[in-house]
Batch of 2 targets.
Target 1
Amino acid sequence: MQLDEFFVTGEPLIYAGMVSIVLVSAAILFILTYFKKWGWLWREWLTTVDHKKIGIMYILSALAMLFRGGADALMMRTQLAFPNMNFLNAQHYDEIFTTHGTVMIIFMAMPFLIGLMNVVVPLQIGARDVAFPYLNALSFWSFLFGAMLFNISFVIGGSPDAGWTSYTPLAGAAMSPGPGQNFYLMGLQLSGIGTLASGINFMVTILKMRAPGMKMFQMPIFTWSTLITSFIIVFAFPILTVALALMTLDRIFGAQFFTLTGEGMPMMWANLFWMWGHPEVYIVILPAFGIFSEVISTFARKQLFGYKAMVWAIILIAGLSFLVWVHHFFTMGAGAFVNSVFSISTMLIAVPTGVKIFNWLGTLYKSRINNTVAMMWSLAFIPSFVIGGVTGVMLGMASADYQFHNSYFLVAHFHYVLIAGTVFACFAGLVFWYPKMFGHKLNERLGRWSFWFFVIGFHVCFFPQYFAGLDGMPRRVFTIIPEWMPLNIISTVGAFGMGVGFAIFCYTIVYSYRYSERETSGDSWDDGRTLEWATPTPIPFYNFATVPHVDSQDAYVKLKEEGKTTFEEDELEPIHMPSNTGQPIIFMAFLAIASFGLVFEWMWMAIAGLLAGIVMMVIRSFDYDEGYHVEVDEIKRTERSARGL
Amino acid sequence: MTDHNKRIPTQHVVGFVLSIALTLLATWAALGSNLSTMWIISGIMILAVIQAGIQLFMFMHVVEFESKNGHVPWNMMFHGAVLAAIVVAGSLFTMSFGFTHDHDEEEHQYEQQENDDQEQQDEGEHEGH
Amino acid sequence: MSSHELKTGPLEYRTQEGQMTILGFWIFLAAEIVLFATLFATYAVLFGRTADSTPPAELFEPGIVLIMTFLLLTSSFTCGLAIHEMRRGSVKGLRNWMIVTLILGLSFLGFEIYEFIHYAHEGATLQSSAFWSAFFTLAGTHGLHVTLGIGWVILLLIQVTKRGLTPRTSRKFFIIGLYWHFLDVVWIFIFTSVYLIGMVV
């Protein structure tokens, strides 16, 4: 292979990308070396098994991915603003919508939520870490290496260009030769390992490590949504694993699953992909529902209205999520009976979702709302998401779907649910729990600016797309006809509004780091209801000096009434904690090397990486490290300084 | 409640004998009997499910009080089985396309439908140009 | 992260860590069920799509498949005996039965490799048609699991020789036991729905 085949050449935008990658990497290396931070980085972050730090790393990476996906989006909107634009050519446009979709779903939405789960869930249930801290670190590194592998594709080898759904036969070896599509397969496969491990980890954590006395139906609602999301992950991700593996076999080893020769069946890919893909949609929306519920009940200063109905609604949605996948390809021609069955099951989902909407409204009803930025994101979510949901029911009607399918109507619909649902929730959750993570709040004034820019921009961007779709504009076209221009210009303006909102958000982080007051109490918003607010800020690495006994919902409210804390000096005992380890990052680095080898079909590299990975597993098997104990004296010292006693 | 200290684990022996017997029964049903294909397939699938149950309950101790894990293991196995059924049956159902029936009338209907679709497509193309 | 240890009951359940790891493995097995179910679904959908290659009914032979099935069923039984011996506190019993399990597993693999090579000689490979792709992937994934299981058992045998029976080593053996029985369950379904049905239809 020649060097000019290895690197992508001929595109000014990509050259700019290469230069910025080199510059940023050089800058990072320089800063780390100049300030002698390598040891600190390795000890405190790269080898950590602390759920809070892993959560923070997840969230930072997700923000970086949001930037990348957002940049893709702005490029697409620029290209589509006017007819016959020459900003991106067809091939480049195809690559960009593919990476935009994949990055946003797999490498932004999911890691962001998993990051929040990591930080918050152990704290909410009174645990000192997740069930398997080593595995948790492994999950993170598999995600990060998967994401890096996928992202590197635009400068090395070329990006995938068959859409984030990668339908065969287009994505097959015959029609998409070269490494591009392999990047998609290996990047998702690698990060998928981590997601499955996270799912198992959270299930065991929540089932086995709750504070003494905490019953299932006393768990905070975000913990509930995490438990059920993990359940979906455990049952949905293996389907993706297999689907990706089959396509890899097709592309690299000449198998015939989805080919047009050898009686392969291209439609089977769509079937498998959406059997995972639909539950995946709920994997990114259910935790979001959990976040909104926490934020709304905190700032409405009321117990969540209809807690049990909420939990059962989540369970029902999770169950139904496995029974609706065909609605993504009604037009494939599975016949009227098949389509009718899935049309009905799809519309059923609106029922539990409606229940939840009423729960939130019921919580707000007659409450004294504290209008913080986190609350504003949550309040904006309700009407915006309803628009997305209602148009979803329209799409769920099989006969009508023949009109809407693959048009901008669909594009508008899923952005309305994913942005108004997931992205708003990520912002709300980050702002809400930010003081717990970093010891200071995000500036509220700047937060409002970023909120209004983003939310108004969002509606301006996507509302016109419903109508563009009804006017016949198909998705994934790289150029528009003059009739669609007015709506598209509006849409592009909105997209840049969202970009400004995101930029202000990033500035808020920097500004608040420098100027925000440091937190002195653990209960940052004064109205905290669940156990995470019972810990002091900054949170000690062992979370709880003493774990409170829980016998009600909203455990911290009762704790406050009784004047108890998580530092009862006479109940202190040595705390057992896991040791840090560099194994996860090294292990996953080897697997990343193996995946990179497979992408270019360099078998020596793939096999070497895989063997090194197996060696790492053997090392792990012989590792009998028992962790260590934190002595009572140290706990006392830490708690006193954290609580200002 | 379990037989930890017994020299001979009765449960395991019974399970083993049963699984060998069921395997032989399934083989006979498939290769030696005169049943119709439909009966053979459903019969041997049921035998397989019974054997899976034997492994789970007699060998794997899916319900074990001392594990302190309550109902979670068999709950997960149960839901795993449900999901397996959905994935397999659902794929077959979805991938059947309604075109593989050998019933004459139905085939005719589909042909007609296809023709209609074709006509509509043609019309659409005319409008487009 | 409680390190309290119970005084009674099977060793593997005495620490909370042991209980949690075993529970985690059950959940992992649930994921494995779906993984294999997806492979079975692919096989079922692609059944009969042999294109120009040899149809399965001409290649599948009841004899060898029955031998493989009995080997694996017996290995599952001996693996159960090994865990039973472990719970009686006998390292020797555990080790001996596990070695028997290993030998049975290896012979199963030997037959499977022979079978695959035989099919390849008859013109049925991963590349020859959709049906054979699905067949080799399904049976091959199971075979790969068996291979991993064999390597894993060897590692654990070294560990138990060095450390004796502790809550951690018994937990590890209990889990490999679950894994091995699970592979047997998967094989029962492969035997039934791939080989038997393949020979009938």
Target 2
Amino acid sequence: MVATVLIHEKNGAGETDTDKTSGTIRYRSNDSAATDASNPIDIPGAGEQMSYEKWLRLSVTVAPDNNITNVEAYTDGANGMGTGVAAYYRVVGSYATPAEPADNDGLTDLFSATSGSPIDLEVTNTGPFTGTGDIADYLVTTLGVSSTATQGNTGSETLTFAYDES
Amino acid sequence: MTKADFSTHPLNFDIDQSNRVATGFLGTVRVIEERGRLFQRRAVKLDLSGGSTTTDTVLIAELDGVKVYVHGADIVITRHELKL
């Protein structure tokens, strides 16, 4: 059987799942999987305003014939989100309620993760993964908006999740 | 059905339980030797700005460190790790 693997956004203290596999991820100033224009990220007068975190994790709803391994994430390596907008990540093994970081300390530039140097999502929760349910680690991403940003939506960017299936 | 359901992807292969025979729209790929294997590399590409999600997949035959990547009619033989 071909595995079905979804990308879930996790929200709230109860780790509520929202399937974002074919949907939109909207960075906001609150913890919500909603994609409306409410709770935008304010452009600061100085410094960097962080968005609330987006906690993303793969979830298997139809198990593979054998297993899933080599779970990774990467970008194209070029920040196309526009002037004054940065994206960061960290990899976490256990869930915590999404928060708004005070700054980017301890975070890594998301666009430093490329197909040649991808994010390893099996640091804590390691495969091979054989059944259904959540697999691998959480990818926690955050936007950082500086005073040089312009109002409106960011430019287009793609985040790739990849895995091997047998 | 979500876009990450690879069962209907045109480049998907069905791999048998031995992991050495894969059958897809373009034909059949076989790894004869027992120490070889077949697997598929999947990619789900999320558009962070709200555009559509896309998927891609490649069949990989691996034998003694050499990999054959079968991506439609495009076939690459290398020892390198190639990503989608």
